[in-house]
Write a structure and sequence with these properties.
By secondary structure, the protein is of the alpha+beta class. The protein is built from eight helices and 15 strands. Bound molecules: 2,5-anhydro-1,6-di-O-phosphono-D-glucitol and manganese (II) ion (3 copies). Pathway: Carbohydrate biosynthesis; Calvin cycle.
């Protein structure tokens, strides 16, 4: 038993990637090293956040507005820069596209075509930062296609099946990293005494149905009638419970383990909703699919959506297969 305990403590993220790929090829080593850098970013952000209340210049707004039209938090920028820093001189990632940057950031030195692109939401749930409620970071890895000389990153405007890996870091009571490289969904818990993410759950499967529905009911009167009818249904029927944390990562993580559905529908004013496809909906859709769940816009699989622009938004319905299908049945019935 002791050997097993020791073995488990040595199942770090980088080793797990190699186990997953059952290979020690250069590509496998690259992906393992890349995931290790993501883990380093998570540790740096978790450390910064854990001391936020004790240091100047960590919390609060920068005073700027980002490409999304959102007021930027200092932590958004800190986390954005952490991901850039951990991939400099890595030779692994040549381009980073983030919610906080209008255009991608290029790391030119020795980056041949075909190297990885990191798409990320550095801090998801920014509204929770200053009140010490859980937030996350979301990441998605794609391969650069073509040389993207004009910096337009048009090769990123492809559907979610182009993702090589995806996952998130959840900064909660413990810091957890959840990822998939297409061979199931696995979670790691940061052991601060080791400074390592240690494997905590393998092959996580979303229950086919769950009791949770997660939605901001404050938008009730802005939705389509079909969504209002779905909400009326769950209000009337036993067995449903509402949980909404204001951070997609936390709300999704709950559903990944307990089942149910998260939805951020479009409204009359914003028919595409609020969430961004390339670094919020698509990476989580990739995980949902790998965990036996689903993610839909209501009319189309999230994984099939081809964005027209980098910061494209989509309506998101994600979680247990049966619960996503139930929401869709109200939408198609309403059509
Ligand atoms: P971000 O902080 O990266 O901009 O994302 C916030 C998103 C998502 O995390 C969350 O589910 C949603 O915004 C909450 O939006 P509302 O406050 O409109 O419910
Ligand atoms: Mn934001
Ligand atoms: Mn977000
Ligand atoms: Mn964000």
């Amino acid at each position: 038993a002791q050997e097993r305990a020791l073995d488990r403590d040595c199942t770090t993220l980088s080793r797990h990637v190699l186990q997953q790929l059952q290979s020690f090829s250069a590509d496998a080593q690259d992906l393992s090293a890349l995931m290790n850098r993501i883990a380093l970013a998570g540790k740096l952000i978790a450390r910064h956040m854990s001391r936020a209340g004790l240091m100047e210049n960590v919390l609060g707004f920068t005073g700027d507005v980002n490409v999304q039209g959102e007021s930027v938090k200092k932590m958004d920028i800190y986390a954005n820069d952490v991901f850039i820093s951990v991939f400099k001189q890595s030779g692994l990632v040549c381009r980073l596209a983030s919610e906080e940057m209008e255009k991608p950031y290029y790391i030119p030195e020795n980056c041949p075509i075909g190297r990885y692109t990191l798409l990320y939401d550095p801090i998801d749930g920014s509204s929770n930062i200053d009140i010490n409620i859980n937030v996350g970071s979301i990441f998605s890895i794609r391969q650069q296609e073509g040389n993207d000389e004009d910096g337009s990153a048009l090769d990123l405007l492809q559907n979610g099946h182009k993702q090589i890996a995806a996952g998130y870091i959840l900064y909660g009571p413990s810091t957890m990293l959840v990822y998939s490289i297409g061979r199931g969904v696995h979670s790691f818990t940061l052991d601060p005494s080791l400074g390592e993410f240690i494997l905590s759950n393998e092959n996580i499967q979303i229950p086919q149905h769950g009791p949770i529905y997660s939605v901001n009911e404050g938008n009730f009167w802005q939705w389509e009638e079909s969504i209002r009818n779905y909400i009326r249904y769950v209000h009337r029927h036993e067995g449903y419970t509402a949980r909404y944390g204001g951070a997609l990562v936390g709300d999704f993580h709950r559903i990944l383990f307990q089942g149910g559905v998260f939805l951020y529908p479009g409204t009359q004013k914003k028919p595409d909703g609020k969430l961004r496809l390339l670094y919020e909906a698509a990476p989580l859709a990739y995980l949902a699919q790998q965990a036996g769940g689903r993610a839909s816009t209501g009319m189309q699989e999230i994984m099939d959506v081809i964005p027209k622009k980098l910061h494209e938004r989509v309506p998101l319905i994600i979680g247990s297969k049966e619960d996503v299908a139930l929401v869709e049945s109200f939408i198609t019935e309403g059509v």
